[in-house]
Write a structure and sequence with these properties.
single chain, 80 residues, four-stranded antiparallel β-sheet, 2 helices
Length: 80
């Protein structure tokens, strides 16, 4: 696993096993902090569900989605 604990606007909360979209470090119009439970990203289907859900958000851009993919990869959550 990577030593980094943040990727763009996403940060890893090890204690709660979450990826958190941190609005304080993002320049887009984010209405709230967004959390992804990593226990739901143990299979390809789970990862794809979350990627699709995040991609549909009006506040996400290509850079934020790319950072999410990098975070999931670094945390060993891309089973494909």
């Amino acid at each position: 696993m990577s030593q980094a604990h943040s990727w763009g606007p996403w940060r890893y909360d090890r204690a709660r096993s979450l990826l958190i979209f941190d609005a304080l470090h993002y320049t887009g119009p984010v209405p709230y902090v967004y959390k992804i439970p990593l226990d739901e990203c143990k299979s390809a289907a789970g990862v794809v569900r979350w990627l699709n859900q995040v991609a549909e958000k009006t506040w996400v851009d290509e850079a934020a989605l790319g950072h999410l993919v990098r975070a999931l990869h670094a945390l060993g959550r891309l089973p494909f």
